[in-house]
Amino acid sequence: MCNHYTNLWNHYTNLWNHYTNLWNRYTKLWNRYTNLWNHYTELWNRYRIVNTKLV
């Protein structure tokens, strides 16, 4: 009986770890693309401001 619950516990722990790893991986990717997006948005805004001042 004890063994059965240990196996269940291990099974769900493995699942939890698996999905946590996936979550972390996608969060890192998301952060990287968000940073890139912010960077280019900032550049675009700067470029726009410079252009409007020139006109």
Provide a descriptive summary of the structure in words.
It contains one helix and no strands. The protein has 55 residues and is mostly helical. Helices cover 96% and strands 0% of the residues.
Looking at this protein, list some descriptive labels.
mainly alpha, 55 residues
Précis, in short:
With 55 residues, the chain is mainly α. It is built from one helix and no strands.
- Strand-and-helix sequence, N→C? H
Mean pLDDT: 93
What's the count of strands? 0
Shape: rod-shaped
Per-chain topology:
Blueprint: H1 2-54
